[in-house]
Each structure stands twice: as C-alpha cells, then as structure tokens.
Amino acid sequence: MIREADDELTIFERSRAGRRAFVAPSLDVPERPLDELLAPALRRAEPPRLPEVAEPEIVRHFTRISKRNFDLDTGFYPLGSCTMKHNPKLHERIAALPGHAHLHPLQDPARAQGALELMWRLQQALGELAGLPHVSLHPSAGAHGELAGVLLTRAFHEDRGEHRSKVLIPDTAHGTNPATVTMGGYHVVAVGTDTQGNVDLDDLRAKASDDVACLMLTNPSTVGLFETGIEEIERIVHGVGATLYYDGANLNAIMGISRPGDMGFDIVHFNLHKTFTQPHGGGGPGAGPIAVSERIEPYLPRPQVVRRGGGSDEADAVYDLDYDRPKSIGRLRGFQGNYGVFVRSYAYIRSLGAPGLREVSEIAVLNANYLLAKLRQEGVLEYLPAAYDRLCMHEFVLSGAPMKRELKIRTLDLAKRLLDFGVHPPTVYFPLIVDEALLIEPTETETKETLDRFAERVAAILREAREDPEIARGAPHTTPVRRLDEAGAARRPVLRQRF
Amino acid sequence: MSRYTSATDADRKEMLATIGVESIDELFADIPAALKLDESLALGPGLSEQEVFEELRALAARNVCTDDEISFLGAGMYDHYIPALIDSLILRSEFLTPYTPYQPEISQGVLQAMFEYQTAISELTGLPVSNASVYEGPSAVVAAGYVAKLARGRRRFVVSRGVHPHSREALRTLAHAWGMDVQEAPLKDGLTDLPGLDDEVSAVIVQQPNFLGAVEDLEATAAAAAEAGAISICACDPLPLALLKTPGECGVDIAVGEGQPLGNRLDYGGPSFGFFTTTEELIRRVPGRIAGETRDLDGRRGFVLTLQTREQHIRREKATSNITTAQALNALAGLIHLSWLGRRGIVELVELIVQRTAYARDRLCAIEGVELLHEQPVVREFALTLPVPVQEAVAACRERGVNPGYPLERDYPEHPDGLLVALTEKRTRADIDRLAEVLEAAVQAGARELEQVAQ
Amino acid sequence: MADASYPEDLLYHPEHDWARVEGEQATFGITWYAQDALGEVVFFDPPKVGDSVSKDEAYTEVESVKAVSDVVAPLSGEVVAINEALEQSPDKINEDPYGEGWLVKVKLSDPAETESLLDASTYEASLQ
Questions:
Q1: How far apart are CA B34 and CA A262, in angstroms?
Q2: Chains near C, with 3+ CB pairs < 8 A?
Q3: Is residue C84 part of a domain?
Q4: Residue C70 belongs to a domain with what CATH number?
Q5: What dotted CATH number matches A90-349?
Q6: Chain A residues lying within 8 Å of B166, measured CB to CB
Q7: Smallest Cβ distance to B138: which of A258, A331, A377?
Q8: Smallest CA–CA distance from C64 into chain A, residue
Q9: Which chain B residue shows the shortest CA-CA distance from C70?
Q10: Number of domains making up chain C
Q11: CB < 8 Å to A485, chain C
C-alpha cells in the first residue's frame, strides 16, 4: 500500500498516542484534589483531540508545509490593491524587543511611556501624511477603519440632530465598502464610473441629497487612477452636508505629493499592512488607523493617546490614555490597537523620513507606468488592453477579453500559467467593472529588471497560447498541487480533520 | 535613493523614456495643481538602520514589561511562556511574507495551516465549524452579535456584566448603529443572573470564565436562550477550555474569544487573533476566511478558501461581515502552540495553573482584611476586595517589583476596592509568596494610614 | 454540461428564469444561460413550502464558488414543493437545468401573468 506522501500529512495525522513536545513545569504548591477545585460537573468529558507529536516532528511539519507557499521574499508579487512591498527585516528585530513585545496592555500608562510616546508620534506622522489634525490608531485593519469612519459619520450627524440613511459608493470601490456601510447601519447607493475611469459626476450630482450621510471614495481608485474631478466631488458632497470618507488603501501613490485633508476629506483610513509595510503573514495581521478633521475629532474611539504638558520641552511631556471623551463612538475592539504593527510602521516612517516617503510614491508610480509601457512594447496590450488608456498611478488594470476571444485562454489561465514561472499573478477578476480584469501593482521595491522579466514572461505565455492554448488552460504544471476542485469544497464543506 | 528602492538615475531616465514622459512629475499630472504639496512633509529626514534601531530600543526601554516585574496582570491577555519553536517557525519568510491565499496552488502551506487551526479550535470549543480567525476578542463578540442580528432580526442583546468590559463597550458601539438595545444582566455572587428572556432577544452573551474569574453555568444560559428562540454566544478564554465543559457540550450556538493566550505575545494589546466557532446550522453566516479540504485534478488532497460567497468581496452589502484581513500569522502561532502542548500537555498545563491559582487565592485571602469578591470556582483568575484604597496598595506593591493585578474600579464602580489577580505557568510559588508578602505589607501600611486619618 | 438549449414548452422571464405551467401550478428554474454565467452551482437556499412569491421579485439565491445570484419569480403564487434533491446535489442545476435541476413548484395566484412572459425564441434572441 502506498501511503499519502509524507509531506502532505496534517499535524493530526502525524499524531501518535504517548508522544509529546511539552513538559509542564513542576508542581510547586500543595496539590489539592481537582474535584475539589473544579467539580466534575464543570469539566469536559474528554480532552481536546490535539496532536501528540514531539518537537522534531512539529518543526519538520511546519517547515515542510511552509515550503508549499509562494512568498514575497522569494519572488515578484504584483497583486493589485495589496501593495506587496518589501518588509524590512529590521522591523521584526525591533518588534521582538521585550519592552515592546512583553508589555501588558493594562500596564499603568505611567509605566508604558515608551509605548504611548511611540503611538503618539505615529499619530502625528500619519496626521501629517493625511493633512488632517487628529488620528486614532484603534481600528484593527482597513475594513475596521472603514467601519470606524462610518460610525464617526453617524455620530457627527446625530450630534446635529440629523438622521440620514444613505452612503454613496462608486462602483469601483473595494467590496469592503458596501459591506461596511451595511454593518454601520446605512444603505448603499452606488455611483457610476465614466468612460475615463473617473466618478461619473452627473450621476453623483443626481444622487447627492440631504439624505446622504457620506461619500466613501477610494483615491487613487481601484482602477489605479487619480480622480481628476476631486475638487468638484468635494463641492457636491459637502454641498449636501455629507461627510467625505477617503479609503486610503492606495495611499502608496501619493505620499508627500498630495493629501486627503487638503482635498477636503473628513476621514481617512490607512492600511498599515499595505502602505507602511507589515509582513502580510498569509492574511494578517494589519492595522487600520484613521485620521480625521477637527469637526469629527470629538467622536473618535476611546481611549485616545494624548500628550500632556511638556510644551516646547519634550522631555517633560507625559503620555496618557484619555478615556474622558463623552461624545466618543466608544470602542471597536479591546485595549489600544495592534501595537506590534505600530512599532513596525513607525520604524518604517523613521527610516524613510519625508524625502524617502515621497520617493516611495514616485517610484511606485514610475514602476507602474513603466511596466504598462513595457507590456505595450512587448505587444501584450494587443490582447490585454489597458482598461483606461492614460497614465496610471501606482497600479493599472488590463482586460483579458480580447485574449479570451482570440487566444482562447482566460485571465484565470494566464494567472495560473504565471505560477509555473515563479511569479505571483496579479489580482484577477477585480475590479468587477472590467471584463476579465487583471489589476497589476508592482510597488516601489521592485527593480527595473524584475519588471522587464515580468513583461517578457507575459508576452511569452501569449505566444505559447497562440500555438497551444491547452498548456495555459491546464496550468499550473509545476506547483505542489494542480487546480483544485473549489466547487466540490463548497458543496460538501470539510472544514476540519476527520478523526 | 532610499534603501528599499532600487531605481538609479540611469534606470529612471530609461524608464521615463519608455513611458514617453520627461519627468516623474509628469506622471502626477492628474492631480490638480492646487492640491499638490509645495513643501516637504514635516517628518524630518530618513535615518540609518542603526539609528532607527537605537531610537525604538530606547522607547522600549521606557516600558515596564513582564520581564521587569512579577506581573499578575490578566483581564483578557495573559503572560504565558511562548515556546521557542513558535518564533523560529513563524519568522520563516514562507509564512511571514505571503498575502491571503488567493492562488491555492502556491499557498498550500497557509491553507493547510488554516485547516489545522480550524480543527484545533473546534476541538477546544466543542463546536464543529471554525473560521480561520478574526481580529481579536472583543471584536469577535461583535461579529457574533452581528450574526445573531442577521439570523434573528430581533432588537435586543442581553449581555452579562461578566463579559469583558471592552467587549461590552464594543457591542454597544455597534448595537447603536444597528438600532438595537443592549440589556445588561447583573452578576450575583460572581455569576450571571439572567433575566427573563422574551421574543425580542436576538442573543444572550456570556463569558467563560467570566471577567471576575468565575466559571459560569453555560448549560443553563444556552437552554434559556434556546427557549426564547435567541442565539447563545459565549466568549471564552481558550486555555481553560482544555478542562471545562465545552460550549458545544453545553448547547451554546457561537463560541468566540481572544486567542492571545495561545502562543501570542502581549504586544501591548495586539496583534493577536480572535476565534469564531459555531454550529452547522449557522455555517453560512460565519464571518471571515474559512479553509476547506478538496482534491486537485490528479486526485491529490489540497486545501482552498471556501464558502466564499459569505464574504464582502462577493456578497458586498449583504455580506456576513466586512472583515477582510484576518490574523493568519497570529492564528498560526496559536496552532503551533496547541500542537506543542498536545492532547495531554494542555490538560497538564491548565491543571498546574488551577493548582497555583488555588494556592494564590488561599495565600492572599489569609491576609487580614483581604476577602474574596466571590467564592465561585475559578481556573486562572480571581477577584479580591482590599480593605484599603486599591490604587495605593497596587502602587506600593509595584515599588517592590510586583504588579499585583488589575484594579476593578474603572470598569466596576460597584467594586471600588476590587482587584483582579491572574496566574499563568510563569508565576511560581515563590512569585505568589512574594506577592502575598508585598500585598500584606501594602495592606498593613494602608490600614495604618487609614487609622491615622481617622484619628 | 450540455450545450445551450431553450425548450419550446417553457415560458421565460428576462431575468433568466423559466416556468413550466401545468394548469394552476407551475415549476420554476433558471435557464441554461443563467447557470452557465454563474458557473458551477454549489448551494441553493430553498424557500419554505407555503411561502408566497411575487412575479419579478427575488425569492431565493443560488451560489456558485465566487458568485451569488438572486432568483426571480417568473410568476406569483404559493410554494407547494421544493426540489429537495438539490440540497445534496446542487450540481443538477448545471447538469439538467430544465429537468432534475428544477427549483420549486408554485400554485399560481394569477395565471394571467403568463401573458407577459417570453417564448423560447424571443428569450433566446434577447441573449444575443
């Protein structure tokens, strides 16, 4: 009998009764009968069926499965809207320092001054980047920041005795925006996109009313374009008394060049795990701080990190957690936010400084436009035309519709074929408004050579498809597993080990 | 040129020529001139790697961490020993640097880890369906509340006062936006005293063990909720679940919780992970990512993200949650920790903590004037009342290198003299004896002061 | 999956639903075009027997791996049966959309509504 290959076993399948990695510290207090401390009626019938495995096998198991992942440290990862930039190694060393890593969240603020000062300084830096005076680090991720923004909008209107019911969202928005609006207790009204990829201003005018609480705008948008009508958008939305929310998912394009606050926005969220380089960890953690205008500040989540005293002499300053915020929307989570994430992002901002952050955006936009031009040069755009034929910001969208028609391979096939060449594919089938979409974001940390190779590789796959489309349709061929039966997984969900 | 970019002057020139523009500024032509910054941000220059390290090391040095004092702080996050293999494994770039596994063929490691994590968490809570993590504890309670709202559509939550104050506050924040009321069930003798439930209740929410450390009767809560047609939700500390009757055994519909005690650092409160488990009945309402087992074209086993139509990117405004970013790396640390503890080890660990907690409870109650706030069974945390002002006693203990716990007065004004004391396997008998010694001295000093004031 | 087909004996709704009317009762389903656009169907969330459905309004959803689609009632009435086999095998909606992949049977409240539905050739032409 041939067994399942050893490196495909789960940790539970490696378990054998009697093996162990953990040895408990010795019992150093007088032992009392367990039944006396926790009556049998309070206890579970059987221990949890966790694996019984010694340390060598645990290490080998996780090391082996790790090798079945593609990762950013290995290769190019142009996943649009995710900003897969290099994660500096320094950050892990700093975050692991005991003073940061072993600090209890309920430590008295007087004994957590370093942490609070770091958070306060990060708030100042993010406020400066956004062009807005106040920052809360509280939300856990981008979508959580959006939720905070929607709740702040609600608090702002309610404080004025107004009850509005709608939030406007362009149809190019991230899927999170509509879900957030519903969770925030509002109704979504979609605003269309014009032929140039901008918000359709006529549609916006028609839908703006005094029942609109907010416009949530992603800028640059998810098609990688800066809203050229941004000033008019601001006039229309503020004209009906609504707030302006800036989804900062794509801030990597404009740092030090333009600021949401200067555009008139009331609320901005940052994705620290995108723009400010957190390791993505296979899908988290992140953090979603928000910056707000003066009129929104009273409603910020609680507690807020504040600096007291000090004046011009920073040495005398004391940092504290301010709970006394009567108009606050309250908490969205426990404790003070994802501090470990703040440490890394603050280190990043200090490493780069103002000139470095501006350079990040300049090179991110240069790389994106260069890659688009290079793909054109390689003839790729004949089959995968740019959805909007203009200069882009930090990312751009191609449509695979002509490729599907003429070469008989779909965007999905191209993506899967890229896997065979050690490249992570771009984001596919998003944004939804572009047929057979590919959203490509190279980021600033890639070299020109990497971009050249990517363009040449895509061109080579198209040439190959002209000869034999089956190769791409059957791709990938070199990965640990081939295409997986996703429909089967969804029809009969198996979500845990069968014992 | 910053050290994280590579475009030389020569590269830039060549790239601009290929694009067909003269300068980088031209690439930003879509931004209206009036909105362009005409001066540099007030963020100072960049620093060398060494300078950044020194600056953040100096900040770290200004925090009193659990290495610097004997800490009995808990109240939601606990100072457990984290085995060395966790750091060594989660710092592997193959776990640290990929994104969400959108391309399953090159993400089997992340996906298999999610599947194994779901299995391990299901085993702890005794509920068959687990997602692959949410942000953290209190927001997991909110996520469960949202599921109950969608499933039941009634206008009220009943939440025990034994639920973590941060969870209760987060729930209130969202309930307001949902047009729902939050009714608080009081504690009586340390346990939830559930009111009568009517047909306007969407969910009943309790915590196990509760914030004051007491082990709740989940069976009674689940039964009362079911009787009223409401969903029962339990926020759990995951380690005690190795010993306690599981939410699944008790008939609870949704068990959530803060995952930090499983292999995650304190990190001043985050990032950690939240877990979310439930019954088959609610499977299509679960928020966040879920991994499922399947086969590839050649029949080999593999794992994929599944039941994705629940999620925000597909169902949009009708989604079960707006969550996108999970806490994959933190959940992985949790899985490795549970694998390291194993089936027997986790029970031994919790039993050790139970014994030391019992010892600590006895030792501290032996101090004159110190009393138990409640006498219910506890696992790893218990509440006391002090005969002297609690902040002063805490400050006196800290001066002698012991952080005795969390004063309850901010969150429980009805217990102005309350102190919550938490144990982990890192607090030895010697540590507990030291706590008893300094707390006794602090109480005696406080009592003398009170006497003087009285005279 | 079979090739595109639009049987002559059915009536069609422009939202890609069909009805097979038999006296006062009708069977509903989604068209070949709809199942093809959706891809492999993985889940069908049936209404309950006794629920009332209204013409042109969504009465349930079908899900594929990466899409959710409302299913619109071509006619009004009360649900008298649901296709229970779909719980185990939702793929029948792809394999046999007009036969074993039927969704519900409905007792019609206003048989005159059929007049506004399309015949096969008109529906098929609308897809071009």
A1: 9
A2: A, B
A3: yes
A4: 2.40.50.100
A5: 3.40.640.10
A6: 331, 333-335
A7: A331
A8: A487
A9: B315
A10: 1
A11: none
A490 Cβ under 8 Å from any chain C Cβ: yes
Asked if A39 reaches chain B (Cβ–Cβ under 8 Å), the answer is yes
Q: CATH for B84-336, among 3.40.640.10, 3.10.450.70, 3.40.50.2030, 1.50.10.10?
A: 3.40.640.10
Q: Which of A429, A486, A491 lies closest to C90 in CB terms?
A: A491
- Which tens digit of pLDDT belongs to each residue from C58-109? 999 999 888 888 899 999 999 999 999 999 899 999 999 999 999 999 999 9
CA distances (Å), origin B436, targets B361, B369, B370: 10, 13, 11
A 233-292 → B contacts, CB under 8 A = 254-259, 262-263, 273, 279-287
pLDDT category of residue C2 using cuts at 50, 70 and 90: low
CB contact under 8 A, C64 and A429: no
* Mean pLDDT per 10-residue interval, chain A, length 499 residues: 66 97 97 97 97 97 96 96 96 98 98 98 98 98 96 98 96 87 95 94 97 96 93 97 96 97 97 96 96 98 92 81 97 98 98 97 98 98 95 97 96 97 94 92 98 98 97 96 95 94
Phi, psi torsion values for C60, nearest 5 degrees: -165, -175
Name chain A contacts of C63, Cβ cutoff 8 Å: 490
Cβ-contact C73, C126 below 8 angstroms: no
Give the chain B residue nearest C66 (alpha carbons): B309
Q: At the top level of CATH, which class does the domain B70-78+342-454 belong to? A: alpha beta
Tell whether C2 lies on the interface with B, counting CB pairs under 8 A. Answer: no
* Segments making up each domain of chain A, as ranges: 6-66, 90-349
* B–C CB contacts, 8 A cutoff, strictly below: 17
For residue C65, what pLDDT is reported? 85
- Nearest neighbour of A491 by CB, restricted to C39, C66, C91: C91
Does residue C80 fall inside a structural domain?
yes
Write a three-state SS string for chain A.
CCCCCHHHCCCCCCCCCCCCCCCCCCCCCCCCCHHHHCCHHHECCCCCCCCCCCHHHHHHHHHHHHCCECCCCCCCCCECCCCCCCCCHHHHHHHCCHHHHCCCCCCCHHHEHHHHHHHHHHHHHHHHHHCCCEEECCCCCHHHHHHHHHHHHHHHHHHCCCCCCEEEEECCCCCHHHHHHHHCCCEEEEECECCCCCECHHHHHHHCCCCEEEEEEECCCCCCCCCCCHHHHHHHHHHCCCEEEEEECCHHHCCCCECCCCCCCCEEEECCCCCCCCCCCCCCCCCCCEEECCCCHHHCCCCEEEEECCCCCHHHCEEEEECCCCCCCCCCCCCCCCHHHHHHHHHHHHHHHHHHHHHHHHHHHHHHHHHHHHHHHCCHHHCCCECCCCCCCCCEEEECHHHHHHHCCCHHHHHHHHHCCCCCCCEECCCCCCCCEEEECCCCCCCHHHHHHHHHHHHHHHHHHHHCHHHHHCCCCCCCCCCECHHHHHHCCCCCCCC
Q: How far is A50 from chain C (nearest CA, A)?
A: 31
From chain B, the residues in CB contact with A258 under 8 A are: 28, 31, 35-37
Q: What is the pLDDT of residues B100-109, one digit of tens each?
A: 999 999 999 9
Nearest to B123 among A50, A185, A354 (CB): A50
Q: How confident is the model at residue B319 (pLDDT cuts 50, 70, 90)?
A: confident
Q: Which domain holds residue C74?
A: 11-112
* Per-residue pLDDT at A2: 44
Residues of chain B contacting A301 with CB distance shorter than 8 Å: 173
**What are the domain boundaries of chain B?**
9-54, 70-78+342-454, 84-336
Domain membership flag for residue C4: no
Identify the closest residue of chain C to A491 by CA–CA distance. C42
